[in-house]
Amino acid sequence: MKVETSAALFALLSVASARPDAVRLFRKTHTPIGASAKFRREVPQEHSHEKFLRGVGQALNLNNVDQVQDPVFALLGNKAAAQGAGQVQDLDCLQQRVADQAFTNAKAANDVEGMTNALIFRALERNTGSVGLASVLCTETAKNPEIAAIQQHQDPASEGAAELNKQITLDLAVQLASIGADPQLALQSGTFAPGQAGDQTGAGNTCDDADDAEGCIFTQNLLVEDATAEEIDAAVAAAGGNANAGNGNADDTADDAEDDGCEADDGSADDTANDDAGNAADDAEDDECEADNGSADDASNDDANNNNNAGGNANNGADNSNNGGTATTGVNVNAFTGSVGSAPVPVISSTADKPFSVNGAEFLNQGAAIQRACDVQKNACANAANGGDKTISVADCDAQQQQCVAQNGKKRRQSVDTGDCGSPAISFGQQQDRGSEEAFAPVNSADFNHGSALKPAVITDFICSQLKSKCGASEATVAQCEEGAQAADSLEGQAAADAFNAALGV
Prior knowledge:
Elements: E1 3-5, H1 7-18, H2 22-29, E2 40-42, H3 50-60, H4 78-81, H5 94-108, H6 112-123, H7 145-148, H8 161-178, H9 216-219, H10 229-238, H11 250-260, H12 268-271, H13 280-286, H14 296-303, H15 310-326, E3 331-332, E4 348-349, E5 356-358, E6 361-363, H16 366-386, H17 394-415, E7 426-430, E8 438-442, H18 456-469, H19 475-489, H20 493-504
Helix pairs in contact: 1-2, 3-5, 3-6, 5-6, 6-8, 8-10, 10-14, 13-16, 15-16, 16-17, 18-19, 19-20
Region (Disordered): 240-326, 408-436
Signal peptide: 1-18
InterPro entries: Appressorial_penetr-assoc (IPR053216)
């Protein structure tokens, strides 16, 4: 790590306290300047895990009670952090306060990905004054016990850092498992290789790129993992798989997120992230759908698609997928046959309470299971591409994932029997009967004549009842409609409409 001297950076941060839009300028333009320092700190690394920084920012902004200008300030030293800390007085606790509020907001929205980002953000290393200097710990107690169970990584050159950072990663894994996320994501909270302790020139192994959406520590292969996948599994198993620091509602939250957060989508969310680092960002999204039974086996099914041994992981991921299909009684309903970088992942349909399963993860909705299978295949493919397979690229994997979703959607559309009625699709936006206010309404008002509504359930329940009574639709179509209605009911806006329409293949 290097010592940076930057009067220009200090000026930018000072402006940011008066102008929130200046934070965006800071995130885009700050670079090391010359030696006329106003203050000294480590080489900038606050953007090294950029995907988690952006993710926690989205969750924080749902209700930013402390008016923190940007989560990036929480990863700076106190002098710089003060310029964007909002109402937070204890700067040693700014990182925890940001993570805690982001987690609270995401939990209220049943957003497992948002909670995941908050947990990982809490564990990220914070900048200090020199190589080997540990950051000060927060002495406040977080509102959320999941956040309270975690502290930030310390400079890897500081005393005892290897053992401490490993424990932080294992603690983080347990909390990730407690909310239904993939505990292996804890490995991505790790930091860089250690520099020379006390080196005021700061020659280190850091990076800092606000424009790298994935995070330069991942795209430049600078991440040093603190534990092995097996150690993660063991820690989660020892904690009971669903352990947290005492939140009695955590299991319910995880279950709600599993059932409600597993709606089918069109893969568009994947397009917004940089997938070049093995699509690790997608894993957090995908694992909203994992079975919340706390077993290490479930976690390890996904591990092969999300660790550094990328070259061999594509095959492992494919093998796990095939084993998942043969070991489960039922029928594979995944219609996709493409095999670029990885074999297609079976989606097993059975008579269980949650009738669809993918590598041991169980789903109520077929659309959600299909989405998961397509994403697992994509991650295995991307690992192969990043692991040195010159015959494929991550772009090929993205394209295949979209083909997988589309082909299964086409199959479902072909199987939809709406009886005497046409399309049961719904829309979200400005409706004729509601002026400029956005609301839900049937697209096909001729067959489904109903005024607009602010809640999706009003429209989806009506359509499902009409399919059954008026239209004479098949039982399978009515069941798909009810699946879509359930998925939409936990969402808002366009996401709710998309989930309902995807379930029916319209």
